[in-house]
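ESCALATION

Customer reports they have been waiting on this structure for their group meeting. Please prioritize. Original submission:
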Amino acid sequence: MTDDYDVPDDVAAYDCRHCGRPFAREEWLALHRGLDHPAELDEEEVTAFRAAHEAEESRLGNFRLRALGALVLVYFCLLMIYALV
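Update from on-call: job pushed to the front of the queue and completed.
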């Protein structure tokens, strides 16, 4: 099944050579290839996938820590409000 994608002409897009799907960033294309077309990758694409995957894992780890910190802060704020009222 081929999906149609509406990409404006003035926007740079990276197209997957296997399925034709466009991506706004080269990292996203590398992640897509590694997840959806792993058997069709050459060594350079595998290396790009691993680098993009490690970077994404690092960003997700940072986000999770910040989200946990925000939840703890909200919890203690509500706890203090409850204790004072």
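Sent to customer with the following note: The helical segments are 26-36, 43-84.
Escalation resolved.
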